Amino acid sequence: TYSLGAVGGTINGNYVTLTQLNCSITPKTTSSKILVQGQVYGESNIPDHFHMLRYLRDSTAIGVGTESNLGVRGSAMMSQSYYDNDNSTTANQTTLPMILDSPSTTSSVTYKIQITCTENSASTFNLNRCNTTSTAQVWHSENGVSCLTLFEIAA
User: Fold this and answer.
1) Distance CA 153, CA 27 (A)
2) Which DSSP string corresponds to 73-116?
C-alpha cells in the first residue's frame, strides 16, 4: 500500500516509487539499448484515472510527456476500472508504453515505475490487489500481478 500526496497545482507532482517493481540490468556496451515494458495492477481509494505512472532510469524520468508547463508529466494514466461507486473491489491493469532507452553505460542501471495522484487530494494505492480486504466480498476481490521487464538490445 502506497500513500500518495496530492499534486494539486504542482507541475511534475510528487511521485512515489513502486519499489517491488525495481529492476536492474548491466548493459554489455555503452551503445546497447534497453527495451522497457511495464504493467501495473492495483486499485486506489479514489478513481483510478486520477493516477499517472512513469518510468525512471535510476533517478531520471524517461518516456514522459514533453510539455513541461501543462500539468503532470508521465508515461501513462491508470485506466478507469470500476463501475458506479464501486471503487473498492475492482482493480485494473494498466500497460505502460514500451520505451527504447539509451543509458550509455556499462554500469548497473535500475529501472523503476512510479505513481502519483493528479487530483487535488491524497490517495492510497494498493499494488497487486483491490482495496477491500473483506472476506465477505472475497468472490469479487481481485488480486493480480504487476511487472517490469527489461531487454538489452545490442547496437
Assistant:
1) 9
2) --SEEPPP---TT--SS--EEEEPPPEEE----SS-EEEEEEEE
